[in-house]
Amino acid sequence: MSLRFLVIFLLLTPVFTGFSQQELDYMGVIKINDTSIISYKISFVEKDGLVSGHSVTDLGGPHETKSYISGYFDKKENSLEFYESGIVYTKSPIIQDDFCFVNFKGKLKKLNERQLIEGAFKGLYNNGEECISGEISLGGFGKILKSAQRMDRRIDRSIFISKEKKEMVDLERSLDTLTMNIIAKGETLNIFTKDVTVKLSIYDAGKEDGDRINLIVDGEVILENYTVTKEIKDIEIPLKLGQANIEVEAINVGTSAPNTVRIEITDTRNFVRTLTNLDAGEKAGVTIVNK
């Protein structure tokens, strides 16, 4: 079992407090035919029974996909219904007809992070044809994070765990990594938009360590041997022929490996934030497609 699934299983236990927030975040897994387990997270708001937000499938994985979700919450019937209806971004090949969208309906007493969201879901293609289905098990993300912090403290204080093993286990950091949307060597993040121009923003989100990159858009070098700093560099990207192909090439790894550059894509509807994770000479890509 991979580390990201181990983290989710260890922490998917409700913690009862009175905390609440406007946007609700749930994280856990979807299980397919009792053989495949895929990490899954939903974030949404509810107003007058209407639910709207996003889901992320395969967090931190090679097929990470963010989709729109919408649905209904009926407090009289204690039921929650939501369905995915389109893609914001994906690391999978961009053939949208092949994507299987989650359609869920289950019982839920209240919309708060004390509750677990559990039950069967049906997977449907865009044309309504049924694809892979299975079960969903989600817990409140805020409570999962608190559980991770509490477990990290217990591990750190334990006299039965060696220092070397303690340094290898950091559940809070692993949880952060799951939700960070990292583009690694050879990966391409495919972003869908309805706009003909989008804004690309580049900066160093952490400590400035001299990371240098080449930024290439549709084969043209836009930034050459550029040193990334905390100052945000904004670039307007026109979608020629309906899309733009962006490559980030790491020139070095600065004073602290790897080369990590924050990249943000903004259009009139969406805001996508990602982070490169590259060694010197490696490349990662972003493809922006006008739907």
Descriptive notes:
30% of the residues are buried. It is globular, with a radius of gyration of 20 Å. It has four helices and 18 strands. Helix 1 packs across helix 4 (171-178). It has helices at residues 3-11, 141-157, 163-168, 171-178; strands at 24-32, 36-47, 50-57, 65-74, 79-90, 101-107, 117-124, 134-140, 182-184, 188-193, 197-203, 212-217, 220-227, 233-238, 243-250, 262-266, 271-277, 283-290. A hairpin with a 2-residue loop joins strand 2 and strand 3 (50-57). The longest helix is centred in the middle third of the chain and has 17 residues, at 141-157. Residues 5-21 have low confidence and may be disordered. Helix content is 14%, strand content 47%. It has two domains: 3-142, Lipocalin (Beta Barrel), CATH 2.40.128; 181-290, Immunoglobulin-like, CATH 2.60.40. The strands form two sheets. An eight-stranded antiparallel barrel has the order 1-2-3-4-5-6-7-8. Strands 9-17-16-11-14 form a five-stranded mixed sheet, with no helix packed on it. With 291 residues, it is mainly β.
What is the averaged pLDDT score?
A: 83
**How many discrete domains?**
2
Q: Characterize the biggest β-sheet.
A: 8 strands, antiparallel, barrel
Output the number of helix runs.
4
Q: Largest sheet, order of strands side by side?
A: 1-2-3-4-5-6-7-8
What's the CATH C level of the largest domain?
Answer: Mainly Beta
Compressed to H and E, one letter per element, the order equals HEEEEEEEEHHHEEEEEEEEEE
Low-confidence stretches: 5-21
What is the strand content? over 45%
Distance between the termini: 37 Å
